[in-house]
Amino acid sequence: MSIKQMTQVYWDTLVHPVLDNRPIYLVTTDCGLVQVTLPHESSLENVQAWVMKKVPNAFLMQEPAKVAPYKLQLQEYLDGKRKEFTFTLDFRGTPFQNSVWQALFNIPYGEMRSYAEIAESVGKPKAVRAVGTANGMNPIPIVVPCHRVIGKNNTLTGFRGGLQMKEELLHLEGVQSFKNKGHAKYRF
């Protein structure tokens, strides 16, 4: 009988004024950052459920020292002192989702792209709706900047953290050139 190798998964929380001083969870593996929760979805129960679904044979533990490098860079970003993240990411999605999330990660600080542009960049120009769905399932928001994706008509569109948070993150990056008349449920 073989013993399955356990995958160590580490978590800690971050509280910041940009996030209304509500905690978010940062979750890592030895391969990189795997999940960041948004304030409205932050609970250890949600983290546990996601990890059990996405990381086979996971052993989840609070480990501030393992999460500290990720937490520091995210803190610096929220403080307006960092424009790029230099740590590794551990994407846990389908190949298509991973390609979309990588495309999101490559959107430069202070810039925006439309869902159609992301679809084009991943070689699936007709998959705009699928890109919107993958964008909404991004497990590493803020770091993988799904907030930088807007509608083709330059309007804010759906964001799991709410349009107000999306607008605040864009303003943090100095972006003002969007219409904030989008709709929370309009995703493309």
Automatic annotation (TrEMBL):
GO terms under cellular component: cytoplasm
Keywords associated with the record: Cytoplasm, DNA damage, DNA repair, Methyltransferase, Transferase
Catalytic activity as recorded in UniProt: a 6-O-methyl-2'-deoxyguanosine in DNA + L-cysteinyl-[protein] = S-methyl-L-cysteinyl-[protein] + a 2'-deoxyguanosine in DNA; a 4-O-methyl-thymidine in DNA + L-cysteinyl-[protein] = a thymidine in DNA + S-methyl-L-cysteinyl-[protein]
GO molecular function: methylated-DNA-[protein]-cysteine S-methyltransferase activity
Keyword Cytoplasm: yes
Keyword match Cytoplasm: yes
Biological processes annotated in GO: DNA alkylation repair; methylation
Subcellular location: Cytoplasm
Positions of the Methylated-DNA-[protein]-cysteine S-methyltransferase DNA binding domain: 95-175
Any single Pfam family the record assigns to this protein: DNA_binding_1
Active-site feature positions: C146
Record's signal peptide: none
EC number(s) recorded for this UniProt protein: 2.1.1.63
Note: This enzyme catalyzes only one turnover and therefore is not strictly catalytic. According to one definition, an enzyme is a biocatalyst that acts repeatedly and over many reaction cycles.
Function recorded in the entry: Involved in the cellular defense against the biological effects of O6-methylguanine (O6-MeG) and O4-methylthymine (O4-MeT) in DNA. Repairs the methylated nucleobase in DNA by stoichiometrically transferring the methyl group to a cysteine residue in the enzyme. This is a suicide reaction: the enzyme is irreversibly inactivated.
Family stated for the protein in its record: Belongs to the MGMT family.
Matches recorded under PANTHER family: METHYLATED-DNA--PROTEIN-CYSTEINE METHYLTRANSFERASE, METHYLATED-DNA--PROTEIN-CYSTEINE METHYLTRANSFERASE, INDUCIBLE
Name the record gives this protein: Methylated-DNA--protein-cysteine methyltransferase
